[in-house]
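Sequence, please.
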C-alpha cells in the first residue's frame, strides 16, 4: 500500500456539533466542496449531518450531483457561479443556487430556490449594488430562499474589515428580513462563526472547522476542534548512507555523516508537495525525523539516523499523531507558506481514503 488518508468521521461529526454550539441558535450549513476539503465529500456529508448540520454547501453543480448519486437527501446549496449547463445540473440535483443578476434569476424556473448575494467587500461574486440586490429579492418571489454575503478577512485577527462588511450587510438585510421572513440570512464561514456572534444570523456556513482544522491557522485543539485526517504511508526501504553520499534528484541532500535513510512511497503525485523538499518532518517509530532531499513524484526520503530501529513496513505519519508526537496540517501549511485548506485539498485521488 502507498499513501492512505484515514478519515475520522466521528471527529467530523463532533467538530460540526462544536460549530453548532458556537453558532448559538443558528442553523449549520456545512461546506463539503472540493471533495470535502480532500476528506471525501460523501464521507464528510454523512458525518456533518450526523453532527447536526441541517444542510450542505458545495461550490460546483457537479459536486451536488455526486452527493445525490450517493443517496444524500439533505438540503443542498451550490455557492459557485453557474453557466447554463451547470445550472441545469444543479437544479436537477434539487439544489439551491446563488443569484446576483437579473438574467440569472429570470432563467430560474418557478420551482427553483435562489439565495441573493450582496458583495459587501469580497470582490468576487455577488452584486455590489444593494438596490439591485433588493430588486432581485423582490423579483425572486416564491423562489427567494436566502439573503447572503461572504467575508474576506474573517480569519485575520485584529482586522476591522469584517466589521465594515458586516455593517454593509446589515444595512441591506435588516429591513429585508421583515419583508421576506421566509428567507434564510447567512454570512459566516468558520472563522466568523468562531470570532463574532453578530455574524451568525439564521445560518452559518463552516467548512474548514468541521474537518478539525483551525480557520486562523493556529492550533485546532485550542478551538475545541479535532483534526479528522491522518495521512500515513509505510517504509518501503531502509538503506545505509555514508558521509558524502546523496539522495534524490539534484542531490539536494548530501549526508554529512553516516546515517540511514528510509524511503516512503508518497510524493507530489499524491499531493505531498515538492516545496516540502528538505522542509518537513515525518513520524516513524513515535518520533520526528526530517524529510531530506527532493520530493519526487512518487517517493520521499527521510533521515532516520543510525540505530533508529526503523525497518521496512513501519508506519510513517505525515499528518496526524503517532505515539506522543503530532504533525498538524497547520504545521505543513506554515512550511509551505500556505494555509491548512490547501494541504488537504492538494491530496490527489492516488491517496486512498479510508
Ligand atoms: C468555502 C466557503 C465557505 C466555508 O469557508 P471556511 O473558511 O472553510 O469555513 C463559506 N462560504 C462560502 C461562500 C465559501 O466559498
Amino acid at each position: 500500500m502507498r499513501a492512505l488518508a484515514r478519515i475520522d468521521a466521528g471527529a467530523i461529526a463532533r467538530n460540526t456539533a462544536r460549530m453548532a454550539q458556537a453558532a448559538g441558535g443558528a442553523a449549520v450549513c456545512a461546506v463539503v466542496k472540493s471533495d470535502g476539503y480532500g476528506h471525501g465529500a460523501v464521507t464528510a456529508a454523512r458525518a456533518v449531518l450526523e453532527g447536526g448540520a441541517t444542510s450542505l454547501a458545495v461550490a460546483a453543480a457537479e459536486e451536488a450531483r455526486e452527493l445525490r448519486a450517493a443517496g444524500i437527501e439533505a438540503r443542498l446549496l451550490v455557492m459557485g457561479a453557474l453557466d447554463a449547463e451547470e445550472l441545469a445540473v444543479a437544479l436537477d440535483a434539487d439544489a439551491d443556487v446563488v443569484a446576483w443578476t437579473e438574467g440569472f434569476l429570470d432563467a430560474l424556473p418557478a420551482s427553483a430556490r435562489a439565495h441573493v448575494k450582496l458583495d459587501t467587500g469580497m470582490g468576487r461574486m455577488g452584486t455590489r449594488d444593494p438596490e439591485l440586490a433588493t430588486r432581485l429579492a423582490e423579483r425572486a418571489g416564491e423562489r427567494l430562499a436566502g439573503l447572503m454575503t461572504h467575508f474576506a478577512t474573517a480569519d485575520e485577527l485584529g482586522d476591522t474589515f469584517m466589521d465594515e462588511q458586516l455593517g454593509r450587510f446589515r444595512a441591506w438585510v435588516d429591513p429585508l428580513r421583515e419583508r421576506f421572513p421566509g428567507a434564510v440570512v447567512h454570512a459566516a464561514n468558520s472563522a466568523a462563526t468562531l470570532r463574532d456572534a453578530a455574524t451568525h444570523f439564521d445560518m452559518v456556513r463552516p467548512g474548514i472547522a468541521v474537518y478539525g482544522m483551525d480557520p486562523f491557522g493556529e492550533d485546532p485543539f485550542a478551538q475545541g476542534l479535532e483534526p479528522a485526517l491522518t495521512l500515513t504511508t509505510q517504509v518501503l526501504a531502509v538503506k545505509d548512507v555514508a558521509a558524502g553520499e546523496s539522495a534524490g534528484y539534484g542531490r539536494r541532500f548530501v549526508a554529512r555523516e553516516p546515517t540511514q535513510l528510509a524511503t516512503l512511497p508518497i510524493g507530489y503525485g499524491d499531493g505531498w508537495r515538492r516545496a516540502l523538499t528538505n522542509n518537513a518532518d515525518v513520524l516513524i517509530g513515535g518520533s520526528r525525523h526530517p524529510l531530506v532531499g527532493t520530493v519526487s513524484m512518487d517517493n520521499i526520503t527521510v533521515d532516520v539516523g543510525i540505530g533508529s530501529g526503523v525497518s521496512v513496513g513501519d508506519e510513517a505519519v505525515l499528518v496526524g499523531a503517532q505515539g506522543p508526537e503530532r504533525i498538524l496540517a497547520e504545521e505543513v501549511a506554515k512550511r509551505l507558506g500556505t494555509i491548512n485548506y490547501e494541504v488537504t485539498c492538494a491530496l490527489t485521488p492516488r491517496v486512498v481514503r479510508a
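DSSP finds eleven helices and 20 strands in the chain.
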